[in-house]
Design a protein that fits this description.
alpha+beta
Amino acid sequence: MPDHLDSESKLWTDDLEVCVQTGAGFATNQLYREDGVRNNESSYKFRDRSFHIKVDENTCLYAICSGHNGSKVAHLAIQRIAAEIAFWGLNEQSNEEEVKEVLRQTFITVEKTYLETIDVLLARKTSLQYEIPDGISQYEISQKYKSILDELKRINEELSVGSSVVLALICHKKLYISNIGNCRALLCKSDTNNVLRVVQLSVDHNLYNEDEILRLCQLGLDPHALRQAPLSCTRCIGSYMNKAGYRDCDFLSGASAEPVISQPEIVGAIPVDDTCSFLILMSSGLCKTLQEIFTTEVSQVNKEVIQLAVEQLRTQSTLAGVAQSVVHKILQYHHDFYMEHVQERGSEEVPLPYTRLDDITLLIRNFNFVMPKSSKRGAVRFNSIVREHSANNSIIFSDSNTLSSTNTSQYINTNSSTSSYSDTNQSSRYRREQEKIRPYVCFAEYYKNVEEAKKKGTLPPGIDFD
């Protein structure tokens, strides 16, 4: 097995300089027993891979790869992405289209690298298939060629491994987002009234996206039948069996061309200025976990993540603490929701909402959100001030769920064939999630009092916001 596909080997990106303005949170997949107890002895190893690195003084790179059916492709993709973008050497003279082309070529290269790694498997599969003679019944095949069938099954499982990817690039104070699959990127920006607005910059490539459904219908597939099939996403890196090998897949074999593709969605360039508050990248497992709780709209998932993040940014002194605390809250919500169904279950024949928790990865890149200082006494005092000033300022989202086209048109890559998210309640080309948060804290009066206390020499010890 090549080193770059060894899911247990150390990532070379671990030795790169990290972006200190970023925090990461993780949770490993778990199985639920019927009594609600979480089983930590899951046979599934952690499938997510991520990094938040500083390429140079003007370039930072953030990515999450969520593995499907295994971690090998995610392990390959996360390393190749970093190498490709660092190789191109983006500089201040690189215009927006050149940066987008670098991102596009990066995904193409990652997919080509994946295909090169499965040559041996494909050759072995072809050889085994030739060992089964034509003209015999399935029963004879199952009796006489069981060992061959078992090996073919193992190979097909390995050829089904894929990965969703969400990638954020900050290059000379401009933000670019590229995604494929079900990972997600959310950007919080403040408007002229200091109100946080939340924009989903990624596109969910799944069977709830009407543009993706339309694309598959044009290939001759039945969308109703597809929704009953185990197809987690309609675009990804890897997953040969759902691409070139789709003829051997029962629910995809009727397509006139490859149904699952590796074309990414690219958004940018977005100026990283004083209006940018923070950026969140989250794995497909995190999105799925919250979607299992909030079974209505995707916007509710985004609302919950942002609300949790703002609450933790108000109180935590480190971004790592913020990210991990958000993950822990989500785990508890998921478990509590499961336990409610366990307790309300009147019969063992009533199915439970889910049986396992997926891998979760969350990255938070802070831009301008004011956090408490790390000083213990200062942080305690800061937190008490936050509670005092924000007691009547709970987080409230606006009724509007759609960002105006005048704001999104400059960010969307119109060369992409599909650039929208759709749910059962609303569908629109280039639709993006936007929510509204009431201003979280006003410190003007507090800072005024601090300055007066400094002049009088009555400022309590441990408080320093200079």
